[in-house]
Structure to design on (469 residues):
């Protein structure tokens, strides 16, 4: 028997996710480290633990069960630090043994094919990523605040800013919100998100089809934590997790235009349904969330809603034919489940992340829809948690989504997030009748990174004993 996870010691966003309709990310640089360490003591009681999130979720369920329609007032707060934040506080970031964290995300984003391949003017074998300039500045930390309203968030933000006054400088504030009406829970392209998360052993029971995942894939120092560097983690790092943040702009009218112009050529399908099918095959789920591996030809929304159906597939019935799901579908690229080709020296269960992002920006307006051109910035404030960035976010983005030769030579890119700064991106598998047909993806991708950073979301005990003073 392994020791049970200490949910009072784990920040609430990591495993459970802070309950949210709105979320603010405050990126800051530490101006006075000694004073900051003192003031952090006053912030720690405001940090929402996993135990607190579980209580909040119960309160939400009770509120709904009683038939209340309004939202329960709830606020969540988490905090995370970058490598420079650790250094500023006198903690050597290299002791954690994650070189991507130690170098920071800008280095990874600039490194071309050796890294994330973020687009931008070419510099040598890499780029100067076309990021929002604020993300090229030093960012020491991030405070994540969630709530049922922007007002609740503003109150908490003011409380924190008052407590930290003079010790930090704000670099950037970003606001996200769950989309309105029937699009709640859907990202901006219109697809239900947040359906597939690794069921962490000791945290929750797997639903049908889900593979139990060791806590150490997400939490440092727990069973299954196997850093690429082979380092022994410092004892204080136990129950912390690396937080990857990315601001990902989505070009929604352009995505819809592409679907409209490239319907899957099935003579039995009217073009609009051929376009809908192309969208589903690019993602791997219908907009409802129903997996195309279960429902390859027609959407069946009930399969997305039922937790025991939504992940009850592993591509093992479609290992080579791709009649159900293309190799390059975003879902299959980012989690190939049982379909890793023999001979490839990876074990798929080593590469899992927990995703806790939120959409940002306004809905597409009629002018944008009609002109098929983005005029307002919108997308996803992507957040993922993992115990090793090189096996989590970075691996999935670089080795799978950006790699046209995964899973097979010439399979093509993940049409949603795959990046390549030098080569025209193409993909295959979209037409179930002719899976080898190549489809050219537009030069300007549907998703463009505008910035980000790698952070550590420390355990509560680490915050108390190592970060604060
Ligand atoms: C704006 C950018 C993105 C969009 C629109 C997007 C959209 C989606 C959608 C609609 C799903 C299906 C819902 C679900 O299964 O939970 C999904 C799943 C997933 N996405 Fe993304 N995503 C984006 C970025 C990323 C990035 C950057 C990564 C990692 C590098 C990623 C990794 C995953 C993973 C691991 C899954 C679950 C796959 C599975 O377990 O079957 N996504 N995404």
């Amino acid at each position: 028997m392994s020791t049970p996870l200490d949910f009072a010691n784990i920040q609430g966003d990591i495993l459970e996710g802070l309950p949210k309709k709105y979320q603010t990310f405050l990126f800051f640089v530490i101006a006075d480290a000694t004073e900051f360490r003192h003031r952090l003591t006053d912030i720690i009681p405001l940090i929402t633990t996993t135990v607190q999130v579980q209580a909040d979720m119960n309160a939400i369920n009770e509120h709904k069960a009683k038939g209340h329609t309004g939202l329960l007032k709830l606020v969540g707060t988490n905090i995370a630090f970058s490598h420079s934040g650790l250094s500023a506080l006198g903690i050597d970031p290299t002791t954690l043994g994650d070189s991507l964290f130690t170098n920071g995300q800008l280095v990874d984003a600039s490194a071309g094919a050796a890294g994330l391949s973020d687009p931008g003017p070419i510099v040598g074998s890499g780029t100067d990523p076309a990021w929002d300039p604020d993300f090229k500045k030093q960012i020491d930390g991030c405070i994540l605040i969630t709530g049922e309203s922007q007002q609740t968030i503003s109150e908490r933000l003011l409380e924190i800013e008052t407590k930290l006054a003079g010790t930090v400088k704000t670099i950037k504030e970003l606001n996200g919100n769950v989309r309105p009406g029937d699009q709640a829970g859907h990202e901006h392209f219109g697809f239900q998100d947040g359906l597939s998360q690794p069921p962490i052993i000791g945290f929750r029971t797997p639903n049908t089809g889900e593979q139990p995942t060791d806590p150490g894939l997400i939490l440092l120092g727990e069973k299954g934590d196997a850093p690429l560097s082979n380092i022994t983690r410092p004892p204080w790092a136990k129950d912390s997790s690396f937080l990857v943040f990315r601001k990902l702009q989505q070009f929604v009218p352009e995505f819809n235009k592409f679907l409209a112009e490239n319907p899957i050529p099935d003579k039995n399908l009217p073009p609009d349904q051929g376009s809908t099918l192309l969208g589903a095959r690019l993602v791997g789920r219908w907009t409802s969330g129903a997996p195309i591996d279960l429902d390859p030809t027609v959407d069946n929304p009930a399969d997305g809603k039922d937790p025991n159906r939504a992940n009850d597939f592993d591509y093992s019935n479609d290992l080579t034919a791709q009649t159900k799901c293309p190799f390059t579908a975003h879902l299959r690229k980012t989690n190939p489940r049982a379909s890793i080709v023999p001979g490839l020296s990876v074990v798929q269960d080593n590469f899992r992340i927990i995703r806790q992002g939120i959409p940002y920006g306004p809905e597409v307006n009629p002018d944008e829809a009609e002109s098929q051109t983005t005029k307002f910035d919108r997308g996803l404030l992507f957040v993922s948690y993992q115990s090793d960035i090189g096996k989590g976010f970075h691996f999935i983005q670089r080795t799978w989504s950006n790699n046209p030769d995964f899973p097979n030579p010439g399979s093509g890119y993940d049409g949603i997030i795959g990046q390549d700064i030098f080569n025209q991106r193409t993909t295959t598998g979209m037409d179930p009748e002719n899976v080898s047909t190549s489809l050219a993806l537009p030069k300007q991708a549907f998703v463009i990174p505008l910035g980000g950073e790698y952070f550590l979301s420390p355990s509560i005990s680490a915050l108390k004993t190592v970060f604060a003073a």
Remarks:
- Residues 187, 189, 191, 193-196, 248, 250, 283, 285, 330-331, 334-335, 353, 355, 379-380, 382, 393, 396-397, 416-417, 447 surround protoporphyrin IX containing FE (CB under 6 Å).
- DSSP finds 14 helices and 13 strands in the chain.
- The chain has a mean pLDDT of 96.
- Residues 12-248+452-467 form one domain.
